[in-house]
Specification:
By secondary structure, the chain is an all-alpha fold. Helix content is 74%, strand content 0%. It has three helices and no strands. It is an enzyme of class 5 (isomerase).
Length: 103
């Protein structure tokens, strides 16, 4: 974390905790923006609309997220649910961009 944002272990006040959470939330949104950029790239690259939904890849992505959650001590069920929604939203977003690129 930055000089002004303390690590969770170093926080002594709720103000410090909230500053850390707010900064991390911003970083998470920035990472999501990058992830959706990859979805736009996929939409551009995939030649057929049917290729947008890949159930095997979806299962792989969710399994990897669950494994990482387990390794990091994060609630696996929560991560699985979140990634299910994230991947479905990503598929929908990619599909929309696939269509837009081919109008």
């Amino acid at each position: 974390m930055s000089d002004t944002i303390k690590s969770p272990e170093d926080c002594q006040t709720m103000t410090e905790v909230r500053a850390g959470v707010d900064a991390l939330d911003r970083e998470l949104v920035e990472l999501l923006a990058t992830r959706f950029g990859y979805m736009r790239a996929a939409a551009r690259i995939k030649p057929e609309r049917a290729m947008v939904r890949d159930e095997a890849r979806k299962a792989q992505v969710i399994a990897q997220a669950k494994e990482a959650a387990f390794e990091l001590g994060v609630p696996v069920g929560l991560v699985a649910d979140f990634w299910e929604r994230l991947v479905e939203a990503s598929i929908a977003y990619e599909g929309e961009h696939w269509e837009l690129l081919r109008r």
